[in-house]
Structures are given as structure tokens and as C-alpha cells.
Amino acid sequence: MTLLTHDRYCDEILFQTDRLRAAVDGADLTARVPGCPDWSLRELVVHVGGAHRWAGEIVRTRSAVELPDERVPDAEGPSGGDPAALGAWLAEGAAATVAALREAGPDTAVWTWAGERRTAFWARRMAHETAVHRADAALTTGAAYEVAPDLAADTVTEWLQIVSFAQQSGDPEAAELRGAGKSLHLHATDVPGAEWLIEFDEVGFTWRHAHERATVALRGPMTELMLAFNRRQKPDEGGLEVLGDSGLLDFWLERSSFG
After folding, report:
1. Which member of 70, 165, 183, 224 has the lowest number of beta carbons within 10 Å of its beta carbon?
2. Which InterPro entries match (predicted)?
3. What single string gives the DSSP state of each residue in 161-204?
């Protein structure tokens, strides 16, 4: 599985934002979000819109350092509880961020919180941020949810890279993801080549694309696999199968967080 193009990530930011906006249109903004139980639906949307604006401002200004929240214009969302106003604010921020990303192209040097210090990082990160939080909104409101298979697959790959970065950075939960001789296999049954093998040792874990026997396997449709791996649904929901040591899968899911 390969990375998508810069333009495709930009397109997905806009598309996923539009679908997120549709999912919350007319909804109760005070409803709690199952995947992010500390947030209301409004707080979820403001988080996504604020993230768009923050990343967009980094790209627009070519910032070489992390920008504090107070340096990001209009990041707190509109006042009041009007879903239409919130949706318009969300769309406006996504459009501005995509315009900045397209103008900069993928290779402009900017600050990121990971090792890759270029604008391509933010296009990819915001596409997946929006797609996963769109799932949160859909699960809250009952809206339909599906993503393109290649985007869903890349979401899994990016999440593995994020958790690996978290482990290398000393995140205490990610640091526990170790255990010699154990392995976890992810297998999307509807997307050729969408397989990942996570192998644990005494120090931590590594991963690669491979079809091999493992201590535990999670297999099923790509969208459902992505949702479960991002802890948005249970591993035995949505037509997924858990084969082998389910405790190892639970061990991973409980500790694969960041921030």
C-alpha cells in the first residue's frame, strides 16, 4: 500500500469535511460522542475545525515552530448552538487550509510534531483527522459511514506510524507495547494487499506489510477494520473476526493512543 498524492489528500479534507458537516446538520450538538466521551458533538466539530485552522496557519505562514492556539484566527468556532453556523464555519476553515496546502505543494518546509518537516505531513494528517472524526460524528448521529478503501488503508498505516513515533518519544502507554515472540496481523478482506503485521520484542514493536500467521489476527472489511483499529468500534463488530489471542489485540488497543 502506498501513500496517496498531495492533491488527493487535499480533496479528501474537503470531502470528509462536507460529509462531517452533513452528519451534524440538524443534530443535537449537546449529544455525547461515544468515541470521544469527554466531548459533545459541538466540541468534536470545533476540535476538527480548530485543527484545520491550526495546520492551515502553520502552512500559510511557513512556520518553523509550533504555533500557540492564540495565534490561530477564529479557531474557537461560532458562538451559540446553531448547527448551520457551525457547519459553515467548519467548511470555511477546511477550504482555507486546503487552499494553503495546494499553494504550498507537498515539499515546503514547515514545523510538524513528527520527523517529517514538510507540508505533505499536514495534508495527510488533516485528511485522516477529518475522516476518523467524521466517523465519531456518524456514530453519534446515526449517519451512514464509509470511506474509500485506499484512504481507510492509509489511515491504518498512518496510525501505526503515529503509535511508533509515540513509543520512540517516550509516551508511557505506547512504551508498554512490547512482548517478545508475539504478533498481530491486520487483514482487510476486500482490499488486495491491505495487510499489516505488527511484531513485538523486548524493546517495543515494529510493523510491515505482510501476510503471515500471528498470535492474533483481526480480519474483515477495510472500513470496519480501520474503525476498530482506531478504537471507534469493537473488534467483533461490523463483520470483523478476531482469530487467536484476543487478549493481545485488547492489549494493543488499550495502549495505542497518543497525546
Report:
1. 70
2. DinB/YfiT-like (IPR034660), Maleyloyr_isom (IPR017517), MDMPI_C-term_domain (IPR010872), MDMPI_metal-binding (IPR024344)
3. HHHHHHHHTT-TTGGG---TT-EEEEEETTSTT-EEEEEE-SS-
In sequence order, the 6+-apart residues with CB closer than 8 A to the CB of 123 are: 6, 9, 10, 13, 101, 106
Phi, psi dihedrals of residue 216, rounded to the nearest 5° = -145, 145
Kindly report the backbone phi and psi dihedral angles of residue 236, in degrees, each rounded to the nearest multiple of 5, phi listed first: -105, 15
Domains and CATH numbers, the chain: 6-145 (1.20.120), 150-255 (3.30.1050.10)
CA separation for the pair 146, 227 (Å, rounded): 10
> From CA 92, how far away is CA 33, in angstroms rounded?
23
Give Dmax (Cα) for the chain.
54
Give the mean model confidence (pLDDT) for residues 7-26.
96
Residue 213 to residue 105: CA distance in whole angstroms: 41
Give helix 41-61 / helix 6-24 axis angle, nearest 10°: 150
Question: d(Cα 104, Cα 233) in Å, to the nearest integer?
Answer: 36
Q: Any idea what DSSP says for residue 1? A: -
Q: Is 259 a residue whose pLDDT tops 60?
A: no
Q: What tens digit of pLDDT does each residue of 82-102 get?
A: 889 999 999 999 999 999 999
> Are the beta carbons of 56 and 170 closer than 8 angstroms?
no
H helices present in the chain, as ranges: 6-24, 41-61, 83-104, 119-141, 149-168, 222-229, 246-255
Q: What number is the average pLDDT over the span 51-63?
A: 98
Computed from CA positions of residues 53, 57, 63, 65, in that sequence, does the dihedral angle turn out positive or negative? negative
